[in-house]
Specification:
Blueprint lengths: L9 H12 L3 H6 L14 H6 L2 E3 L9 E3 L5 E2 L8 H8 L16 H42 L3
Subcellular location: Chromosome, Centromere; Cytoplasm, Cytoskeleton, Spindle; Nucleus
Keywords: Cell cycle, Cell division, Centromere, Chromosome partition, Cytoplasm, Cytoskeleton, Metal-binding, Mitosis, Nucleus, Phosphoprotein, Ubl conjugation, Zinc
Pfam families: BIR (PF00653)
Length: 151
């Protein structure tokens, strides 16, 4: 009999595990090996990782980062940008912004942070599904209207 994690699609399982390891600042920092900014900038890898971001560049954007907690993606970084200020500016309700540092964090704090992270992930997934549903409902409504009007 397969366990729950084994029954998840392998690609989805990989994403879940990658997201979980991003709880660690060291793991987030390790993603910045190809970060396009030099050490004399405000947005150096250590500051980016400390602010909750990990580097996830795309083919078109070399400076895309994502918060492991709230999932907020940011790009278009300028050399003097402060990662903490940018994080707060674009996602002020992110629970990570209000949490303790890893050194101060207890197991209970970690579990609360992980619970909050999972809650954020689920809320985002539900919001996407609601948006898809509303778009499909509008399209169906329009088709029904056109059908009843004889179009």
């Amino acid at each position: 009999m397969a366990t729950e994690i084994e029954s998840i699609d392998p690609i989805e399982r990989g994403k879940l595990l990658q997201n979980f390891v991003m709880n660690s600042e060291a793991e987030r920092l390790a993603t910045f090996k190809d970060w396009p900014f030099a050490e004399d900038c405000g947005c150096i890898p250590a500051k980016m990782a400390a602010a909750g971001f990990y580097h996830c560049p795309t083919e078109n954007e070399a400076d895309v980062v994502k918060c492991f907690m709230c999932g907020k993606e940011l790009d278009g970084w300028e050399p003097n940008d402060d990662p903490w200020k940018e994080h707060k500016k674009h996602s002020s309700k992110c629970p990570f912004l209000h949490s303790k540092s890893e050194r101060e964090e207890t197991v209970s704090d970690f579990l609360k942070t992980e619970r909050d992270r999972q809650e954020q992930r689920i809320v985002k997934a539900v919001e996407v599904k609601i948006k898809e549903f509303l778009e499909q409902a509008a399209a169906t409504r329009e088709q029904m209207s056109n059908f009843s009007a004889g179009k």
